[in-house]
Design goal:
It is a single chain. The protein is α+β, with helices and mostly antiparallel strands and about 750 residues long. The strands form 7 sheets. A 7-stranded mixed beta sheet has the order 3-7-1-15-12-13-14. A hairpin with a 5-residue loop joins strand 12 and strand 13 (about 230-235). The radius of gyration is 27 Å and the shape is globular.
Length: about 750
């Protein structure tokens, strides 16, 4: 559906075959572990069996003596970083912490924390060598709960962390105190005391969400060759080649110009393949041996030692009038950072009330270290957790005042001109349109008929990133165009970028040949994340196309011996005065004979996008005896700006919704009291399968973002946000119990039923 008459496009909005499709379905696509180099060695990593312990000593002598072992390394082989903060394209990172996360130094801070690594002739020898490394531990008490970690008597993980307060007041009176609370954010708007005084109904609830993994199929894999000339080449599956380059260079103590990162195909990431774990280790092992070294994580290591999304504890309070107007909101949010600071607490604070016009609001957010792996992004990082809390309370308010849930959301919806609690004012956004689309949908209009069936809706938001991108495009003599860009393709971005360039040039999508290249072959490009690529790298590709247009016009003017101002580019043709006219292909055939190659350059440096909203409708059937929740129908309506490739957009909405359903019903890290994860495999960590979800219905709402030439909005983040709340609201509608703890597993549902 569209909210206004759509522009007429030739390529945008069509569904061409994806450019990378043949390689992937035939098995020719090369992923991280597929890299093979002459003389390559194989690495393995020794990981901590303890969640919290001091390292008293490490003895590698027996491992070094094993036949076939070529090198052993520990943190002592990495340059000292000191306590310094570096911007790496994914946010600021304390290099001391990043260094210690790659290989533990004085302490291990989670089960699976890397301690040492071995390079050997075979991976089996390397693994056996790891078993021979002797580590003397002083085991310490772990802290696994975010609230317990904030207590004054909690074991402190890092002796260099003091609470950094960003807002109106500090989290603690003693700024010098050792603590697990790394950051305290405070956002305020209006007067919350006045707002709550005006409310006829005030609801305050507490919520908990579990640690959740991104669930990507391909484990982390890196191959590195440190050449004798000092140049380091990295082959890896990553969401950001330039970030890997910077992190590897910093951790190895070499200039970034000495590091080249070559991206392989990537079998999923969702935010989990931004931080580095393997490249610096493989690099040092390669330097020691003079040979390329490959490191590949097994599935258990992926779960135990890479960054999941953080668990959380939240207190949210919302006040509304009896006629359904929100007048105040207050939130207290604590996110698990994992072993080192860096949870998405800031985005969580930004998103908690972002779907509504809340005149009076206050948000306190805390970044808290616990004995779990350092958290990483996961599709709209921080937003799913807070959406669960806010949208559950909104549904409860609707029940209390007797107002239809869609009408309440329409009455309070964020729209152009509304200021968020964190400061920005909305431009043109489409929340109202997504709610209306659900309200008007066949799904919402069809009554439920079964016993213990219920329906719930929820709305989610992500602000979408802009950031920096670069692209070049070269005209080939046959009329095709080679597009070179630096954004890792996770969700079909090669096709989306090729289509935007094709639209700009007036040629077909098939006539653009997109390639994702290494860090030496394209200008700086930020990570693939935050729903930024189709938007920002798309702008870079469009600008490259405009550069080509200008050059083609200049070339035609030279051929026609006329003034360049008399030549225009229109719908894939170069048009002069009179009968002078070339198609793109006709002029492309002449470029080598009339001045040589034509290459267009484009860059983008976008602060942000306009943001995106999605509203979901979930129907469930609950078995009150077993607690099992079965989803029987599910619809996603999302403001996608302009759908470049509708099939890809639909896939993003469906995939995000299924991941959100996993958060809602099944997925969680399960730790024992010693801090060991007991479900570090896809057998025990249960993600949704085809048997768990129906076909996800999609409604593409198109409210173009005026900040993009074609109205693009990022679409990949938002669909994961509403599912837990929509399903929780549906469960209440079905059996009358409120769920405030994720995942809403059968035993938890049964426990709430028994309380009735």
């Amino acid at each position: 559906m569209a909210t206004a008459e759509k522009p007429k496009y030739k390529v945008i909005g069509t569904r061409p075959v994806r450019h990378d499709g043949v390689d992937k379905v035939t098995g020719r696509a090369r992923y991280g572990a597929d890299t093979q180099l002459t003389g390559m060695l194989f690495g393995a990593t020794l990981r901590s069996p303890h969640a919290h312990a001091n390292i008293k000593s490490i003895d590698t002598s027996k491992a070094e003596a094993l036949p076939g072992v070529r090198a052993v390394m520990t943190n002592a082989d990495l340059p000292e970083q000191g306590d310094r903060v570096v911007e790496l394209g994914e946010g600021a990172v304390n290099m001391r912490h990043l260094n210690a996360n790659v290989l533990a130094k004085e302490k291990v801070l989670y089960k699976g924390h890397a301690i040492a690594a071995v390079a050997a002739d075979t991976v089996h020898i390397a693994e056996e060598a790891c078993k021979l490394i002797e580590v003397d531990y002083e085991v310490l008490e772990p802290v696994l709960d975010v609230v317990k970690a904030m207590a004054d008597d909690a074991p402190v993980l890092n002796d260099d962390i003091r609470t950094e307060s960003l807002g109106s007041h500090p989290a603690s009176d003693d700024a010098s105190k050792h603590t697990n609370v790394a950051k305290h954010f405070v956002f305020e708007k209006g007067d919350i005391a006045k707002g709550f005084a005006e409310a006829d109904i005030v609801i305050e609830r507490e919520f908990d969400t579990a640690t959740v993994h991104q669930g990507y199929i391909e484990p982390h894999a890196s191959t590195v060759h440190w050449n004798t000339d000092g140049k380091v080449t990295v082959w890896t599956c990553t969401q950001g080649t330039f970030s890997v380059r910077h992190q590897t260079a910093e951790l190895c103590g070499i200039p970034i110009s000495d590091v080249k990162v070559i991206p392989t195909e990537i079998g999923g990431g969702f935010g989990g393949k931004i931080s580095v774990y393997l490249p610096p280790v493989a690099a040092v092992l390669s330097k020691k041996t003079g040979r390329p070294v490959k490191l590949v994580m097994d599935r258990a290591a992926v779960f135990e030692a890479t960054g999941p999304t953080p668990g959380s504890h939240m207190k949210v309070k919302i006040g509304a009038t009896k006629d359904g107007k929100i007048v105040a909101g207050e939130a207290w949010i604590a996110f698990e950072a994992g072993a080192y600071t860096g949870s998405p607490i800031a985005p969580g604070c930004m998103c908690v009330f972002s779907c509504y016009d809340v005149p009076n609001a206050k948000v306190d957010g805390f970044d808290v270290c616990v004995n779990k792996p350092r958290s990483n992004a996961y599709r709209a990082p921080g937003s799913t957790q807070v959406c669960f809390a806010t949208e559950t309370i909104v549904d409860e308010i609707c029940r209390e005042i007797g107002m239809e849930p869609a009408e309440f959301r329409l009455k309070n919806a964020a729209k152009e001109g509304v200021r968020r609690v964190d400061g920005p004012v909305y431009g043109k956004v489409g929340m109202i349109e997504t709610v209306q689309a659900i309200k008007d949908s066949d799904h919402y209009q069809t009554p439920l008929t079964g016993k213990f069936q219920g329906r719930g809706i929820a709305t989610g938001f992500w602000f979408n990133c802009g950031l920096k991108s670069a692209a070049t495009a070269t005209v080939n003599p046959d009329g095709t165009v080679s597009l070179v860009e630096g954004s890792t393709d996770i969700g079909g971005s090669r096709a989306g970028l090729a289509m935007q360039l094709a639209e700009t040039l007036g040629i077909t999508a098939e006539e653009v040949k997109p390639t994702v290249v290494d860090t030496d072959s394209v200008g700086y490009t930020d990570v693939t994340g935050g729903s930024r690529v189709t938007f920002a790298t798309g702008i870079a590709a469009i600008n490259a196309g405009k550069d080509i247009q200008q050059q083609m016009c200049a070339r035609a003017a030279m051929i026609w011996d006329c003034d360049e101002a008399d030549v225009r580019y229109e719908d894939g043709c170069i048009i002069g005065s009179g009968e002078n006219r070339f198609t793109f292909k006709e002029l492309a055939a002449k470029i080598n004979a009339t001045g040589g190659p034509i290459a267009g350059r484009g860059t983008a440096s976008e602060e942000t996008q306009a943001g995106a909203f999605g509203t979901h409708c979930a129907d469930v059937e609950v078995d009150p005896d077993t607690g099992k929740v079965q989803i029987i129908r599910y619809t996603v309506a999302q403001d996608v700006g302009t759908a470049i490739h509708p099939s890809y957009v639909e896939g993003q909405l469906q995939g995000g919704a299924v991941q959100g359903i996993g958060w809602a019903l099944n997925e969680e890290y399960w730790y024992d009291e010693a801090g060991s994860i007991r479900n570090a495999s896809f057998l025990d960590y249960r993600i949704p399968t085809i048997y768990d979800v129906p076909m996800i219905e999609t409604i593409l709402v198109e409210v173009p973002d005026p900040g993009h030439p074609y109205g693009v909005r990022g679409v990949g983040e938002v669909p994961i946000c509403p599912p837990p709340a929509a399903i929780a609201n549906a469960i209440f509608d079905a059996i009358g119990v409120r769920m405030r703890d994720l995942p809403m597993a059968p035993h938890k549902v049964c426990a709430e039923v028994l309380k009735k």
